[in-house]
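Q: I have 196 residues here and want to know how they pack in 3D. Can you give me a structure?
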Amino acid sequence: GYKSNSLLVLCNSIEIIIKLMKWTDIKKDLRKPQVKSLQLTEKYFTSNKTGACLIHMPTGSGKSGIIATVCNLQYNKCTLIVTPRTALTKQIKSAVEKVFFEDVLKKKANPNKKIFKDLLSKETALDRKNNYDDFIFITTIQKVDWIRKNNRSLYNSLVNIIKLVIFDEGHYEPAYSWSQTIRGFNSKKLLFTATP
C-alpha cells in the first residue's frame, strides 16, 4: 500500500508541474490591443464559424506577439503559419519560438513544449495516425501553394492534420492561387494584417 500511495502522490505532483500555460496567464503583460485581439480570437475559436477571422493591427502594435500567443498558449491543435516572404517567415518563427516569450515577456521560451517544424516541399505525406497537436509548421505561402500543385499527397495530409492556419500579411490571401491553397484547409483561419 505505501509504495502505491507514494506513486500516486508523485503522479499527482507531476500533473501539477506540467499544467499547460494559457494566454490568460500572461494577460497582465500584454498591451490593450493585444488583449482585445486575443479575446476576439478566443470568441472565434469557440464559435461554429467556418470563415476566416481577420485581425487588423497597425504596424508596431504587437502582431507577432499575438501570433506567438495564439499558437503557443491559446490554440492547442496543429497549426500552420504562412507568410508571403522568407524574411518574414524567419522573423515570425523567431518570435513564436523564443523572442516574444524571452525578450518581450521575460518568460521561459516555448512554455508548452510545442514542436516547431519548417515545411519541406519534398516531404512525404504525414501519417494521420500520429498526433500532431503540438506541431507548429511555419513556411511561406509560395511553398504551400507549390505543395498543393506538385505534392498532392503531402498537401492532402496537411489538410487533414492542420486545425488552424495563421496567415501573416493576410491581405495577400485573396490572390487567386494562394486563396485556393488556404481555403483548401478545413480548419480555422486567422488572417493578420496591418493594411486597412
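Q: Anything worth noting?
A: Confidence is low (pLDDT under 50) at residues 1-11. The chain has seven helices and six strands.
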